[in-house]
Amino acid sequence: MSRTPSDTDFHEEIPGVGQFVFARRTMRDEMRIASEYSRLTEGVMTPTPFLATVAGWIATLKVLIVAAPDAWDLDEMDPLDEDAYNRIAKVNNALRQREGQFRKTKGTAGKGAGQAPGGNDQLLVSPQVPAVAD
Q1: 111 falls in which pLDDT band (50, 70, 90)?
Q2: Which of residues 89 and 133 earns the better pLDDT score?
Q3: Which CA distances in Å does 95 have to 58, 65, 133?
Q4: CA distance 133 to 10
Q5: Where would I find the beta strands (DSSP E) of 44-118?
Q6: What is the distance of C-alpha 127 from the center of its chain?
Q7: Half-sphere exposure (CA, 13 Å, Cβ side) for 23?
Q8: What pLDDT score was predicted for residue 105?
Q9: Which of 39, 85, 88, 97 is the most buried (most CB within 10 A)?
Q10: CA atoms within a 13 Å half-sphere pointing along the CA-CB vector of 20
């Protein structure tokens, strides 16, 4: 792959497919993924569900894969081989699952959660504030 390795990369063994190294997603990567998605869908404003799904998988993997098994080449996969789509989906799903582990669970306090800066974690607006006029 053409992506430069980084200290934030992570390894994932995907059963039946092989060992992958993925980059940890950044905001810039999101822009790269969106650009690749646009190229793959050729700018179609309303892609079919199939096109949107597969283009999303491929765009994401093209951007975030740092290293892949020797036999892995998205551009050379046979589009008429149903197993090719299954392998792509399996790799994408493993990536997404691992990325989910990096995110905070909704409603879970992160480091530093607790009292607000300045030592005042009480309601700062009076409860008697009038409702917005119609």
Answers
A1: low
A2: 89
A3: 12, 9, 48
A4: 53
A5: 65-67
A6: 41
A7: 21
A8: 59
A9: 88
A10: 25
User: Strand runs (DSSP E) across 1-134, as ranges?
Assistant: 10-14, 18-22, 65-67
Convert the pLDDT of each residue in 58-109 to its tens digit. Answer: 999 999 999 999 999 999 999 999 899 999 999 999 999 999 887 765 555 5
pLDDT of residue 122: 45
Look at strands 65-67 and 18-22 and give their pairing: antiparallel
Are 92 and 53 contacting, i.e. CB atoms less than 8 angstroms apart?
no
CA distance linking residue 90 with residue 108, whole number of Å: 29
The structure's pTM equals 0.74
36: nearest Cα among 56, 66, 50, 51: 56
* 65 within 8 A of 1, measured Cβ to Cβ: yes
Q: Cα dist. 125→105, 121, 129, 130, 131 in Å?
A: 28, 12, 7, 11, 13
Amino acid at site 48? T
Radius of gyration of the chain, Cα coordinates, nearest whole angstrom: 21
